[in-house]
Design brief:
Blueprint (H helix, E strand, L loop, with lengths): L16 H10 L8 H14 L4 E5 L2 H11 L7 E5 L8 H5 L3 E5 L10 H13 L6 E5 L8 H10 L4 E4 L7 E2 L2 E2 L6 E5 L12 E5 L2 H11 L22 H11 L2 H18 L6 E3 L7 E2 L5 E5 L9 H10 L5 E2 L15 E2 L3 H8 E4 L7 H17 L2
Helix pairs in contact: 1-8, 2-8
Bound molecules: pyridoxal-5'-phosphate.
């Protein structure tokens, strides 16, 4: 029997990526600028709508860092950040010498808990430092509580840096994720819904702000014939080769979203008669998720031997990659010293949650193998 590894999320080429890459070679645009970079930015701008201005960068992490720079974050400033996320949401706070303060999740979207968020704002203001930025994440492609979080941000006049790295193709009430923040962030890392092998983008509300982002991203070169700099610069622009892959991937983005959603429907079906497991889905029809990763919560039953880790090991034994949810930042050694507001929602999700193979390129045979492991595990532990 074929027992090749089934991955959580692997690159899925559409077919025309190489044409764009070849064009870059043929025209010698082998540089961190060129027609593919401009083309990818235009594709993203028309995809996102809302007059978004998009700058293609070397990674999503670079986009978060530049977002903080553009929003004026400096050493010693407080930045609020969703705790349950990938560390790349939070690391750039430290790059700026700023102070991260972590916020719990709510149980519906697994994203920023509005109550904990407001507590953090009030309490940090009372301590003498009004938070400079709120970093909000759409975990696994499920939008955060857009309106509630925006109302809090506006009430205290704190800008939102929208980490939409996992949510390209998701939307809320018809508006695309990436366009809700004062600045938005996308990622095209190899495991994301579309990839440029590695890359990201910053989404800004105006062309002027995009120009400012690109100024910082290309070493902050002042207008002079010699190299002249009056601000700290970064080398964060996307390569024209990578952007060629991205242009090809944009042609298949909506198809990939449909296939990832099909994987989520597959899991809803497989787990429909397994009471111990709930599949993570959107709270209402206002939310449209790309389901970048399909995730489940396993209600532990130690007498029966049912818990998240036992199920993960059963998948591992069948050569199927699954992973616990993101370990919250306030539990990470590198961030342990910083303040945290909330209770144990994120922590409990981390203990009982599992991400399952979710790629747009999974086959019927692979789905059969996944489903067989699940049936066998829950038959055995019934
Ligand atoms: C992937 C990811 C990032 C970082 O993007 P890179 O392109 O890998 O630098 C940031 N935030 C979240 C939530 C992510 O999943």
């Amino acid at each position: 029997m074929n027992n090749h590894k089934i991955w959580l999320s692997s690159p899925h080429m559409g077919g025309s990526e190489q044409n764009y890459v070849n064009e870059a070679f043929d025209t010698n645009w082998v540089a961190p600028l060129g027609p593919n970079v401009n083309g990818l930015e235009q594709d993203l701008e028309s995809y996102l709508g809302q007059d978004a201005a998009v700058g293609a960068l070397s990674s999503g992490t670079a986009a978060i860092h530049l977002g903080l720079v553009l929003l004026g974050v400096q050493a010693g400033d407080v930045v609020l950040c969703q705790s349950m996320t990938f560390s790349a949401s939070a690391n750039p706070i430290l790059y700026q010498g700023a102070i991260p303060v972590f916020i719990d999740s709510e149980s519906q979207t697994w994203n920023l808990c509005p109550i904990a968020l407001e507590q953090a704002i009030v309490s940090e203001i009372a301590k003498g430092k009004k938070p400079k930025v709120i970093i909000a994440v759409h975990l696994y492609g499920v939008p955060y509580q857009i309106e509630t979080i925006r109302a809090i941000a506006d009430a205290y006049q704190i800008p939102i840096l929208e980490d939409s790295a996992e949510a390209l193709g998701s939307s809320y009430k018809g508006q695309k994720c990436g366009t809700f923040g004062d600045i938005g962030v996308l990622s095209f890392n190899g495991n994301k819904i579309i990839t440029t092998s590695g890359g990201g983008a910053i989404v800004t509300p105006t062309a002027a702000l995009k120009q400012k982002a690109l100024f910082y991203a290309t070493q902050s070169r002042d207008d002079a014939p010699h190299y002249q700099h009056s601000a700290i610069g970064y080398n964060y622009r996307m390569s024209n080769i990578c952007a060629g892959i991205g242009r090809g991937q944009m042609e298949v983005l909506d198809g990939h979203v449909a296939l990832r959603r099909k994987m989520n429907a597959f899991y809803q079906d497989v787990f429909s008669d397994i009471a111990a497991v709930s599949v993570f889905t959107v709270p209402s029809s206002d939310y449209f998720a790309n389901y970048w990763l399909s995730a489940i919560v396993v209600e532990p039953n130690l007498e029966k031997g049912i818990h998240r880790e036992a199920l993960r090991l059963a998948f591992e034994a069948a050569n199927i990659e699954c992973r616990p949810l993101w370990k919250p930042m306030h539990l990470q050694p590198i961030f342990q010293q910083y303040a945290y507001y909330g209770s144990n929602i994120a922590e409990t999700l981390f203990e009982n949650g599992l991400c399952l193979p979710s790629g747009s390129n999974l086959t019927d045979d692979e789905r059969d193998r996944i489903s067989a492991v699940i049936q066998e595990f829950f038959n055995k532990h019934d």
